[in-house]
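can u pls check wat happens w/ 3-hydroxybutanoyl-coenzyme A
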Amino acid sequence: LRGKGQPEIDPKATISHIAIYGAGIMGSGIAQVAAQSGYKVTLWDVTQADLDRGIHTIRTSLARSARKTGQPADWVQSILSRISSTTDQLAACTSADLVIEAIVENLSIKQDLFSRLDKVAKPTCIFATNTSSLLVADVSAKLGEERKQRMVALHFFNPVAVMKLVEIAYMDGTSPELLALLKAWVHDIGKVPVLCRDTPGFIVNRLMVPYNIEARQLVERGDATIEDVDTAMKLGAGYPMGPFELMDMTGLDTGYHIMKAWYETAPGLSGDPRFKPSPEMEQMIRDGYLGRKSGRGYYVYDK
Ligand code: 3HC
């Protein structure tokens, strides 16, 4: 996007304050990496308890990095001082240059959030969703045309502090200038951007979800055990985690919501029986087997 001879873009000239909606695993991770790179961050969630949990996650992750990289004693606190938190949904974004939404994977809840923020955010504010399965076109459906042109997906990966990739998914009306700015911003927070058209699952989930489904079906058919599938993919394919370890880390409910959304509505994918959540999967979710976050999924974890 940047032709030869054009100046480097300084993202900090346009983006200094970032509002992040959702203080869960993804939202707190995004808040951490943004603050670590010098941005002022406001983190929003529904309750103070949600925010406290999010800030605790950030503090723990920063402390881990500080130990690894031998940072001075005040390093963690200096980064945390750039993050404020609030349960006031509208106030969180009034002075933001970039909004990143990482709330529950539910289309109408996301649409309603963005539509409320649209009324109070600066006209220049960029809107981004961290959706793992929905289309930016659908999430932005209730926005005015001007804001739609400033709306993309910025899709991060778990654990955010470690995973180097950010997918930037764009719509037909997204300007090259906005994409160039966001690419520069992603580089500035120490990550690597890739671009993808606004399609279900973008690049990574479009490939990874069918792989996870095949792994489940292999075990549901009784062809191999969970442990052997994980060992096979780590030692035979060089993946850092097996598919069941990975599903436990990302959350079985996350995988379920992606499959359900694709099976029900995704263009080109809806009605595909591969994506119909199996009764076994639905039962596990009903019984609270959500993965690491609930202490049990395919494996059992110390809380
Ligand atoms: N905060 C800070 N640092 C962390 C961290 C955290 N939360 N978690 C791990 N680290 C650091 C460690 O300190 C360590 O640093 P070092 O290399 O300098 O020593 C490094 O990361 C590796 O950590 P560990 O040694 O503890 O663990 P592993 O070597 O087993 O790596 C892993 C852990 C990075 C999670 C690796 O197993 C991995 O890459 N797994 C695959 C993860 C993946 O595929 N994520 C994508 C999921 S899909 C998704 O998120 C999309 C969504 O839409 C569903």
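The chain has two domains: 11-197, 206-292.
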